[in-house]
Amino acid sequence: MRILTTSALTVAATASPALAASGPFFSLSNTDFVVTVSFILFLGVLAYYKVPGMLGGMLDKRAEGIKSELDEARALREEAQTLLASYERKQKEVQEQADRIVASAREDAKLAAEKAREDLKTSIARRLAAAEDQLDSAQSAAIKDVRDQAIMIAVAAAKEVIAKQMTAAEGNRLIDDAIAQVDAKLH
Fold first, then answer.
1. What does each C-alpha distance from 173 to 92, 158, 178, 185 come to in angstroms?
2. pLDDT for the residue 17
3. Which residue among 45, 126, 170, 185 is the one 20 to 30 A from 141 at the CA level?
4. Where are the alpha helices (DSSP H) in the chain?
């Protein structure tokens, strides 16, 4: 620090405009001399009170503060990069999970569509079978109705024919034969 003060005085003395002034330099009426002496005294007071050391200390302290801020900023940056990597990893995992969900949903939809087709085929087959059963039943009922009508018409026609051809004596004989047959079957 003393080297700095001595070198500052040397520079001040050699670069002073006092060398360019005319007349006796070491006179109190020479303003250049007074300014040079005042400057040298000012530098001396600064050196006495260790101002350059304080300035150096302040600069060192400021440098340490900046260094600690830079270290803190580096740590924060590394933490941010770690968080970013973590979030990117999570985003990738979420994307993969979403892709799996979509694939699963597509597969489920495909299976549901196949099951719906099978259910529809089964339902159609059941309805066709029910319709065929109804047709068979309706056909059987129609055939039975036609037979019943034919029998009724035949019985009515036979009744008229028999009524026209039968006499009272023949009717009595038929009644007696029917009673005999019933009696024989019962005993």
1. 109, 19, 9, 18
2. 53
3. 126
4. 2-14, 31-48, 51-165, 168-186
- Which residue in 44, 61, 57, 60 sits closest to 2, CA to CA? 44
Output the CA torsion sign for 115, 121, 124, 130.
negative
Convert the pLDDT of each residue in 22-43 to its tens digit: 567 778 888 899 999 999 999 9
**Residue 30 carries which DSSP code?**
-
Q: Which pair of tokens denotes residue 58? A: 């302040």
CA distance 186 to 180: 10
CA distances from 23 to 11, 20, 31, 33, 35 (A): 22, 10, 11, 11, 16
14 exposure class (CB count in 10 Å sphere: 0-12, 13-18, 19+): exposed
21 near 32, Cβ under 8 Å? yes
For 164, phi then psi, to 5°, come to: -75, -35
Q: Is the pTM of this model over 0.85?
A: no
pLDDT, the chain, mean: 86
Neighbours of 40 (CB within 10 A): 15
- Does position 85 have pLDDT exceeding 50, yes or no? yes
Q: Give pLDDT tens digits for 136-184.
A: 999 999 998 898 888 888 888 877 877 777 777 887 888 888 889 888 8
